[in-house]
Design brief:
- By secondary structure, the protein is α/β, with parallel strands linked by helices.
- It has 15 helices and 26 strands.
- The strands form 6 sheets. The protein has a 9-stranded mixed sheet with strand order 2-1-11-10-12-13-14-15-16, sandwiched between helices. A 5-stranded parallel sheet has the order 4-3-5-6-7, with helices on one face.
- It is globular, with a radius of gyration of 23 Å.
Length: 527
């Protein structure tokens, strides 16, 4: 059997018997939610309260225009570049409703970074914030499939349409929805890779729907929240999935596009937020605020965080401020649709926890043979939220999914109770807050400088963000280069969060193994 057949037999066959009445696609999810929660508030954004019914009208209008006027077919890609705002929700649901594949992209990326992702996914439509037009217009000619660009502005330049033309018309009499198969692709989320280029992880309608069901039956998060606040960009798997899942359960979502930490705390207090989907780094900033104790956060029912490790001091401070709320820390990845392992962070601060209700987990050696308790090996995972493969990269898909298990590249062990503990990462990827940063990409930029002889980029511990970027540079013989020269070069070509916070200049060659590979762990340990 190939890996898809193994996953079907071992994961989906039992679940399909358990959930026979599940929705079969996200158009059905959206339609049910609008009908069930019509008069309830779906989104609160900058003082606006958007009901499920009003959002439903906007989505069906946009879906109609995209399908009938711009020829978007099932399987066509639609790139979405909005922050945490209603236009993101309209764009995503409209594309999903007609069977298109949504490609959320990082709004902090610069032109070169976006060009790679757009060329890979080859979208027919781009929907974006007007502030990003200057990054897209110079490269639109490199996307042969592109038929239209819609931007959030009233008077766009030639060749660009205002986003409002999608939603200003009448509600169509005939539904434009396409109810596609549950195994059809719904999203392409970009994930990490050690080659310096992100890969597009394809998520099916089925994988998203099972993630909603998992949230309902999970021991850690079984109760659906009444008010959800998402202070992170929605192009992240976790943020997007939380919003979609909240819509599925009729939850009011508080969208914050731009905010400072005290504005976030004020929003929690004002809207009586019950579920704050935040990174460990956001909680670290919150508890560090001198006004943290002044806000009434008693509405929060549970504290969820992930994206990177959360310092013990932050966990302790949260428990002091919110003694009634359990803290749940998650471990997961885009390929498995976010969280796969959850733990009570107070009771088990050194563990990632137990696999959730729909996840199977193994620890294996280099031959994929099972290891005993407390033996360190690679973490292998399969679950109902598993991705369908990497877009246009069958070779990489077969490699990570061999034997019907996703090979995470992370090293860990399970204790006698089956709880997962992380021992380290086999991959070189740096996790700064929620951002996945690929050292090879930054190294390629720094290597362009004529005075650079060698360069290695590593992650170094940070109390707020989990990790920061450090560049270790060996100048060419006789050449001179300063730290600011390195940073300026990176600022010109990379998103701000990728620019090294620390630059170390050294005279000695970088340590290498006999095969010539730089020994990054040695650099980290000598840090």
């Amino acid at each position: 059997m190939n890996w898809q057949q193994i996953i079907q037999k071992e994961v989906f066959d039992p679940l399909e018997k358990e959930f026979p009445e599940r929705p079969r696609n996200l158009a059905e999810v959206f339609q049910r939610a609008v009908e069930t929660h019509a008069d309830q508030t779906a989104i609160v954004y900058e003082g606006q309260h958007v009901s499920f019914s009003a959002l439903g009208d906007s989505v069906i209008k946009a879906a109609h225009v995209l399908r009938n006027q711009y020829g978007v077919e099932a399987g066509d890609r639609v790139a979405v570049l909005f922050g945490t705002e209603p236009t993101f929700a309209i764009s995503v649901w409209a594309a999903l409703a007609i069977g298109a594949v949504v490609c959320p992209m990082n709004i902090r990326y610069l032109k070169q970074e976006l060009q790679y992702q757009l060329e890979l996914t080859d979208p027919k439509i781009i929907l974006l914030d007007a502030e990003l037009l200057d990054r897209i217009l110079p490269i639109k000619g490199e996307i042969p499939s592109l038929k239209a660009i819609f931007a959030s502005m009233d008077d766009p330049p030639e060749g660009v349409y205002p986003f409002s033309v999608l939603t200003n018309g009448p509600v169509p009499e005939a539904t434009p929805y396409r109810f596609v198969e549950e195994t059809d692709p719904a999203f392409i989320f970009f994930t990490a890779g050690t080659t310096g280029r992100a890969k597009g992880a394809v998520n099916s309608h089925r994988s998203l729907i099972y993630s909603f069901l998992r949230a309902r039956i999970s021991a850690a998060g079984g109760q659906s929240s009444q008010v959800l606040c998402i202070p992170i960009p929605l192009h992240y798997t976790g943020g997007c999935k939380s919003f979609l899942g909240g819509f599925y359960s009729g939850t009011k979502c508080i969208f914050l596009k731009h905010w400072k930490i005290e504005e976030l705390l004020e929003a929690v207090q004002e809207h009586k937020v019950t579920n704050l989907f935040a990174l460990g780094s956001i909680w670290a900033l919150a508890v560090a605020s001198e006004n943290f104790s002044k806000y009434d956060l008693s509405s929060i029912q549970a504290v969820f965080y992930g994206g990177s490790s959360t310092p013990a001091a932050v966990i302790k401070r949260i428990s002091e401020a919110l003694p009634h709320a359990p803290q749940v820390q998650g471990y997961g990845m885009t390929e498995c649709n976010g969280g796969t392992v959850e733990v009570d962070a107070l009771a088990r601060p050194t563990s990632c926890g137990m696999p959730n209700a729909t996840t199977q987990l193994r620890i294996a050696d280099e031959d994929d043979s099972d290891l005993s308790a407390n033996e360190v090996g690679q973490i292998l995972i399969r679950n109902a939220q598993i991705f369908s493969g990497y877009w246009k990269n069958e070779l990489a898909t077969e490699e990570v999914m061999r034997g019907g298990w996703y090979h995470t590249g992370d090293m860990g062990y399970q204790d006698e109770e089956g709880r997962l503990h992380i021992a380290g990462r086999e991959k070189d990827m740096i996790i700064r807050g929620q951002e996945n940063i690929y050292p090879a990409e930054i190294e390629a930029v720094i290597s362009q400088h004529p005075s650079v002889g060698e360069v290695a980029v590593i992650g170094v511990p940070d109390e707020i963000f989990g990790e920061q970027v450090q560049a270790i540079v060996v100048p060419r013989s006789g050449a001179e280069i300063g730290e600011e020269d390195i940073r300026q070069l990176c600022q010109e070509q990379l998103a701000g969060f990728k620019v090294p916070k620390f630059v170390q200049l050294r005279n000695q060659p970088l340590p290498r193994n006999p095969g010539g590979k730089i020994l990054k762990r040695e650099l980290q340990s000598s840090g």
